[in-house]
């Protein structure tokens, strides 16, 4: 296994990609790492991430810039891009990601992998360096849907140290692996959410991959409807909870490191200054947030999340859908030094509903991307629908056979 370097491990430092935390040695493994080790996992290494998981380009003061193995001039998405680059390059078999916005699914999309963001409450977040107690989720990053199902089976469990997992305790099936069905698309009803597709030339290659995927799904027995969600842009604006929750959550994490913690709180971290410049403005904003979870704006955003949850469930019910489909990113993953634009992670992170991202195709080959740039597609369903999402994605994966190892790394 390759573990994202914001998961606490007692035998390796947990840096969060920060020079400031370079020698931070947590007193014990986080809950998910405990679960994985008990199941026989061997942790080979910790992987780079966007520093403190604050962004989508996988650059940090400790690890530098991770490159996309399919195109060394592009990022691997983020923030879990180090894990994704390692797994797609066959440096390990299984990897872990964390997803506050789209940080497991973005690298999966960019590096031809499978990533799952589970239902809120299914997988523990305790011992993972936090951003948002509302939005943070832990999930698998793997080369196949089958491996993701095997990992989720081990990761999903009740953890008294993360009370939200009490909600998932009775929703975990006996097996996620039993959902691996080559005929899983037969009879399925899927809604292609056209609101989450671009309409300009820069979106063309992603759109082609999506429409090719839809065609194959229909050949495999699915009914795919073109649908729209009323007021989607309005419903998905200003839903991020991290700016209200980060300071409190980060300080609590540091306190649990004990007396040997490199810094004691967010104010000390900011004052140290040795972080990557790309996260400075966000750190300053979070440090200045005084009332945080007690503010009227925070409560308002909770109501906004509820409105989006209702809208998604209404669309699913109105069209009698099993899931909605869309590209994880409207355009190809950004080049190094560019901003990561037009990602579609909000439909899951804004609702707490599960989503699975998986290979949907490649762009045209170029000199820097001899196989093309990977394009990920995503399926989202209601709470606790992971088995059904796995079934749909597995059926597509087995028919499409889109997994190709990158040309930049050894066989």
Looking at this protein, list some descriptive labels.
411 residues, alpha/beta, 12 helices, 31% helix, 12 strands, two-stranded parallel ribbon, 8-stranded mixed sheet, Amidase signature (AS) enzymes
Write up this protein.
The structure is a single chain. Helix content is 31%, strand content 13%. The protein is built from 12 helices and 12 strands. With 411 residues, it is of the alpha/beta class. The chain has helices at 31-38, 81-88, 105-110, 145-155, 204-219, 232-235, 242-256, 266-272, 280-288, 296-318, 346-349, 386-400, and strands spanning 2-4, 45-47, 59-60, 64-65, 94-98, 114-117, 138-142, 189-193, 223-227, 323-327, 355-362, 374-380. The protein has one domain (2-400): Amidase signature (AS) enzymes (Alpha-Beta Complex).
User: Major β-sheet, in short?
Assistant: 8 strands, mixed
How much of the polypeptide forms β-strand, as a percent range?
Answer: 5-15%
Identify the strand order in the major beta sheet. 5-7-6-11-12-10-8-9
Instruction: Return the CATH class.
Output: Alpha Beta
Termini Cα gap: 18 Å
Return the string of H and E elements. EHEEEHEHEEHEHEHHHHHEHEEH
Helix segment tally = 12
CATH topology: Amidase signature (AS) enzymes
Number of domains: 1
Helix content: 25-40%
């Amino acid at each position: 296994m390759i573990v994202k370097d914001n998961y606490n491990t007692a035998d390796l430092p947990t840096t969060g990609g920060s020079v400031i935390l370079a020698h931070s040695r947590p007193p014990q493994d986080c809950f998910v790492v405990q679960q994985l080790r008990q199941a026989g996992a061997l942790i080979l290494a910790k992987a780079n991430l966007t520093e403190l998981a604050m962004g989508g380009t996988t650059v940090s003061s400790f690890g530098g810039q991770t490159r996309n193995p399919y195109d060394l001039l592009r990022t691997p998405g983020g923030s879990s891009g180090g894990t994704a680059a390692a797994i797609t390059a066959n440096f390990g078999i299984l990897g872990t990601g964390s997803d506050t916005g789209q940080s497991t699914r973005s690298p999966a999309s960019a590096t031809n992998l499978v990533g799952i963001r589970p239902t809120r409450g299914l997988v523990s977040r305790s011992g993972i360096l936090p951003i948002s107690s509302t939005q943070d989720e832990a999930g698998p990053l793997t080369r196949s849907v089958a491996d993701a199902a095997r990992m989720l089976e081990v990761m999903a469990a009740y953890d008294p140290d993360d009370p939200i997992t009490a909600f998932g305790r009775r929703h975990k099936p006996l097996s996620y692996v039993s959902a691996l069905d080559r005929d899983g698309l037969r009879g399925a009803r899927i809604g292609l959410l056209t609101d989450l597709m671009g309409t300009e030339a820069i979106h063309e290659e992603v759109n082609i991959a999506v429409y090719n995927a839809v065609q194959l799904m229909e050949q495999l027995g699915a009914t795919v409807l073109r649908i729209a969600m009323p007021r989607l842009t309005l419903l998905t604006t200003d839903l991020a909870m991290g700016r209200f929750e980060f300071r409190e959550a980060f300080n609590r994490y540091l306190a649990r490191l004990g007396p040997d913690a490199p810094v004691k709180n967010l104010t000390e971290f900011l004052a140290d200054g040795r972080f990557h410049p790309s996260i400075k403005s966000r750190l300053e904003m979070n440090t200045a947030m005084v009332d945080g979870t007690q503010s009227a704006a925070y409560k308002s955003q909770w109501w906004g999340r509820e409105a989006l949850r209702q809208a998604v469930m209404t669309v699913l019910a109105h069209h009698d859908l099993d899931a909605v489909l869309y590209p994880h990113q409207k355009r190809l993953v950004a080049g190094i030094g560019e901003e990561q634009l037009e990602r579609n992670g909000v439909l899951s992170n804004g609702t707490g509903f599960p989503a699975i991202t998986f290979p949907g195709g490649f762009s045209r080959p170029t000199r820097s991307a001899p196989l093309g740039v990977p394009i990920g597609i995503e399926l989202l369903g209601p709470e606790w629908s992971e088995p059904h999402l796995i079934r749909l994605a597995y059926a597509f994966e087995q028919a499409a056979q889109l997994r190709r190892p990158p040309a930049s790394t050894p066989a």
